[in-house]
Each structure stands twice: as structure tokens, then as C-alpha cells.
């Protein structure tokens, strides 16, 4: 008779201890899984492991490629035809629209280091800023992958893309010759833009991944700065054996009807590959995959 109460008390104590231990472990587990510390350029930032409401004032295309859950995007990304179907119900927002950003209730904000109101944005939600051009196109994608807790996916894409681009580059060089040169030029309102090897428009693919050659004039004027402005009359001086023409549909492209243009050897030989400038101003996976296919078809099918 005396053993029963003691046994009962002992069982109750063990049960309470187990429940207490279980509750503590569950709470700790939930807390650990909700956020992590991301080491940004400006220092550590506590960010959600699975952000559900991202406002991307920069690097939106990188977020899109990793299927990040966007609620706000910059106007330039929104205007890009490649992303139209991927941005339904996503609001266009600028760095001076703090009230609108608050209304979007973000749990993560991605911005540029020169973005206005950065300090105020940090009061709204965890904010991570990137300096444009500080990272190359591959490292930038991997960094966004880290931020979104999708580093594995970002690295897998990067490795696969570089391998495929290098293989296609070898095929292109076999066809056009190891010494052939390629220029990347974009049309503007009254001028043209010549690009180096890191200014989007597929320049990273052509020069870095495929290792195609630049004309000397491009090396001298655009390699270091990334971009060089020229007049339509001087376009022939910067055009290589092949030309990737980033054609802006919103500007006057009538210079392409002039003798100056028509007498450029690359034009006369049919060695011009046109791309839409609105679809080529980023260096994210969606854009790069689109341009890789364009270059493969343009160089190898001509």
C-alpha cells in the first residue's frame, strides 16, 4: 500500500520532466529554423531562412531565377519582357516610396549600396545591400543564393552554366576561327555603346565563359570601364569580325540604313546577331540562359 503513492508521484514527475524537456527542445528548434545571420557588405544581418515577402529594389532577376517570393520589384525589371509572366501581382516600387514598401509588409529587402533611404528601410525589415559590379555575374548569383538559403541551387546552376557555355564557345571558335573578334554594341538615342566583358548584354558569356576575342579598339576603350560611348559614324572602328547588336526598339535606329553601316564588313558578311536591349540588361540566370541559346543559334546556324 505504501509503494503505490510513491510510484505514482515518480511517474508524474518523470512525465512532467519529459514534457518540459520536449517543449524547450521544440521552441529552440523553431527559433533556430526561422532566421540565420547573413554576412553582408555592411556587416551581419539577421534574415529569414525562408523569406515569404521580398522587396527587391536591385537583383530582382537573381531572386526570380531562384523562385524567391517577391512582393515588390524595381521598374526596370518589371519592364523586361523576359520576366513579365513571372511578376504577376508583384508591385513596382522605388527607393523613395517608403510608405508603399511598408504596405507591402516585406520580411526581406534587397537593395543597392547607393539606394536612397537604406537606414529607414532597415527599420521596416531586414535589409541587405549589394554594390553593383563588386561581384562578377557568377559570384553575385551565388551570393543571392546564400541570402535566400538556396546556395546549393545557385552553385549547381553556376557550375552547369559555365560548363555548357564553355562547350558552346569551343564549337563557335572552331567555326569562326580562334583569331576572330566579336563586338557587343547597343543602340541609343543619338549615340552607340560599346561594352567590355562585364556589362551584361551577353558580354560575360561571350568574353568570360566562351573566351571569344575583343577587337583592340574595344579592349583599349571599354575593357576597363565596362562601357564606351561612340557616334554612329565611328561604329565601324569598334566592330569586330562578328557583331552582337543590342538593339533598343524605343530609339531611332535609322543609322542602320546608312552606307556607313552597310559597308561594315561584319554587316556585309551577315555576321550580325541582334538581341533586344530590353531583354539583355541583366546578368542573371534567366537572361543568361536566353542569351546563351541566342548566341548558339546565331553563331552556329549562320
TrEMBL record:
Residue ranges constituting the Fe/B12 periplasmic-binding domain according to the UniProt record: 53-302
Chain segments carrying region Disordered: 24-43
Alphabetic keyword roster: Signal, Transport
GO CC terms of this entry: outer membrane-bounded periplasmic space; plasma membrane
Main localization (coarse): membrane
Gene Ontology annotations of biological process type: iron coordination entity transport
InterPro entries in alphabetical order: ABC_transptr_periplasmic_BD (IPR002491), Bact_iron-sidero_bind (IPR051313)
Localization (cell): Cell membrane
Membrane-topology annotation of the record: Lipid-anchor
A Pfam family annotated for this UniProt entry: Peripla_BP_2
Signal peptide: 1-17
Family of the protein in this entry: Belongs to the bacterial solute-binding protein 8 family.
Identification of the protein by name: ABC transporter substrate-binding protein
Organism: Rossellomorea marisflavi
